[in-house]
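User: Need the bound-state model for 2'-deoxyguanosine-5'-monophosphate:
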Amino acid sequence: MSLEGQYDRNNIFAKIMKGEMPCVKVYEDDATLVFMDVFPQSEGHCLVIPKGVDSRNLVDLPAERIAGLFERVQKTTRAVIKGLDPDGVRIMQFNGTAGGQSVFHLHVHVIPCWEGKPLRPHGEGGMRGADELQPLADKIAAAMEA
Ligand code: DGP
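Assistant: Bound-state model below.
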């Protein structure tokens, strides 16, 4: 899919926001949803998405929403650090198929990293179930509230 085009209101993340598909939720407010990536590159990999916008990527996000989105990315990153104690955190965001994007609702990856533990390849690490993701989400959510 190119960088430009129609927003698909039935993309998987739109369905998650509408409650038509499940997710392991970490945090939600009026502007943002944070949930666990089901193909995590490391334990604790989560996604931050803006709500209420038909934005396929960073390019078509209304400029006035950028600060709020990245405030939540920072909040999530701080909670990941506090809750999971990684050695580093990688923030990633892909635009267009050629840019590595596979789901066309804007999302920012927050990926904890540990020394000596390479990240699994993007989208290829195998699907994880709620049983594995929920305890990680609970730790991140608890750190967000503290
Ligand atoms: P990107 O390639 O940047 O578009 O990343 C999409 C990410 O979304 C990828 O890391 C895998 C993840 N993903 C794909 N489908 C689902 C899903 O149904 N639920 C969740 N939670 N994550 C998904």
